[in-house]
Amino acid sequence: MNLLEKCKSIKNHEITAIDNLNGYVKVIEEKNPDINAFLEINHEKALKTAEEIDSRIENGDKVGKLAGMVIGIKSNINVEDFIISAASNTLENYQGSYDATVIKRIKENDGIIIGMTNMDEFAAGSSTESSYFGPTDNPTAPGRIPGGSSGGSAAAIAAEMCDLALGSDTGGSIRNPASHCGVMGFKPTYGGVSRQGLLDLAMSLDQIGPLARDTSGIALMLDVISGMDPKECTTLDWEVPQFTSLVENGEDSLKGMKLGVVKQFQEVTDDAIVKIIEKSIDKMSDMGAEVVELSFDNIDLCLPTYYLINYVEFFSATRKYDGRKYGYKIEDVCGEEVLRRIHMGSYISQQEFSGKYYKKALQARSLIRKEITQLLNGVDVIVSPTVPKLPHKLGDTLEPMEMYAYDVLTVIANLAGIPASSQKAGDVNGIPVGLQMQAKPLDDDKIIHAMAALESSS
Question: How confident is the model at residue 319, as a pLDDT?
Answer without folding.
Answer: 94
